[in-house]
């Protein structure tokens, strides 16, 4: 099997589940990962032969992809805000809209705290006053991206899932980024007391009502962790309510909350935080024009 026939095989196996352009992109991504060659080399050297080990891996990946398993799980990696992260079925796959949330935070913090961005070798263990908590950290993507972008901040991530925390800690080790990951059931008020007071509280919590499950893509429902996706139909804002109450006790004055939200619940989330006494609530649309992010202050 050469590069050209490998790409053709992958595209054919994906044809039943993906549009041709998406199938081609996934096939190329897989072959890049298997061979270590970029797409330019793949195109120029279509007759280059795969090793027997590479051929076995391509066919194994093709089987998993044909069953609609997300390519990020098949390859065990996902890129997020410039970081190459390990992912498996214990955690959600990082998504572009979450990168938009992180970028919003980074831009705000770099403007407000420019001195915290610069860091030399002698500052490896130094932090200043800025403290950040990521609730429901999953793969650690948000916490690690923020620590990478704002090196002198002190960053924590918490999650109820120990297997998710294992992924987050692995990513911290692999990237050399220091974040304190803690096992906490954030819905348990007693456990929330173990968390520090912070200046920035960020979360991409579960927010999809179970009733939406039938309308979601099969590869999400079958492969991604339900505990990180779904909330009860009768209490879709359960995590936002817990975040608001935690913020009353542990968010420093002049602190800020940044949240990812369900595209249809922007108004409800805004109303919740206003009813909890927060003065400024900004709902922001993502690049697709959907209400997807909220910033809460005061």
At the fourth CATH level, what is the homologous superfamily of the largest domain? Vaccinia Virus protein VP39
The CATH top-level class label of the largest domain: Alpha Beta
Using the alpha-carbon principal axes, give the shape: globular
Give the uncertain stretches in residue-range form: none
Protein name: peptide chain release factor N(5)-glutamine methyltransferase
Keywords: Methyltransferase, S-adenosyl-L-methionine, Transferase
Organism: Flaviaesturariibacter aridisoli
EC number: 2.1.1.297
Q: Could you explain how this protein is built, in words?
A:
- 43% of the residues lie in helices and 18% in strands.
- By secondary structure, it is of the alpha/beta class.
- The protein folds into 2 domains: 65 residues; 210 residues, Vaccinia Virus protein VP39 (Rossmann fold, 3-Layer(aba) Sandwich), CATH 3.40.50.150.
- The strands form 3 sheets. Strands 5-4-3-6-9-11-10 form a 7-stranded mixed sheet, sandwiched between helices. It has a two-stranded antiparallel sheet with strand order 1-2.
- A hairpin with a 2-residue loop joins β1 and β2.
- α1 crosses α2 and α6 runs parallel beside α7.
- The radius of gyration is 21 Å and the shape is globular.
- Keywords: Methyltransferase, S-adenosyl-L-methionine, Transferase.
């Amino acid at each position: 099997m050469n590069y050209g026939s490998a790409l053709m095989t992958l595209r054919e196996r994906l044809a039943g589940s993906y549009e041709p352009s998406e199938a081609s992109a996934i096939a190329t991504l897989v072959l890049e990962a298997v061979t270590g060659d970029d797409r330019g080399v793949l195109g120029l050297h279509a007759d280059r032969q795969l090793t027997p080990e590479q051929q076995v891996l391509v066919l194994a990946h093709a089987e998993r992809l044909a069953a609609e398993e997300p390519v990020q799980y098949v390859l065990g990696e996902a890129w997020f805000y410039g970081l190459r992260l390990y992912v498996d079925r214990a955690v959600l796959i990082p998504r572009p809209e979450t990168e938009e949330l992180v970028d919003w935070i980074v831009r705000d913090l770099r403007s407000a705290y420019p001195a915290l961005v610069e860091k030399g070798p002698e500052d490896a263990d130094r932090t200043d006053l800025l403290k950040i908590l990521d609730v429901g950290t999953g793969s650690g993507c948000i916490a690690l991206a923020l620590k990478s972008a704002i090196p002198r901040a002190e960053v924590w991530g918490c999650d109820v899932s120990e297997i998710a925390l294992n992924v987050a800690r692995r990513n911290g080790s692999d990237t050399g980024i220091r974040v304190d990951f803690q096992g906490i059931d954030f819905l348990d008020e007693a456990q929330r007391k173990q968390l520090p007071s912070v200046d920035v509280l960020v979360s991409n919590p579960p927010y999809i009502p179970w009733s939406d499950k039938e309308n979601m893509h099969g590869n999400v429902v079958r492969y991604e962790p339900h505990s990180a996706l779904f909330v009860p139909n009768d209490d879709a804002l359960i995590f936002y309510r817990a975040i608001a109450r935690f913020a009353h006790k542990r968010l420093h004055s002049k602190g800020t909350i940044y949240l990812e939200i369900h595209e249809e619940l922007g108004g409800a989330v805004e109303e919740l935080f206003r009813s909890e006494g927060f003065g400024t609530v900004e709902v922001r649309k993502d690049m697709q024009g959907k209400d997807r992010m909220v910033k809460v202050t005061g």
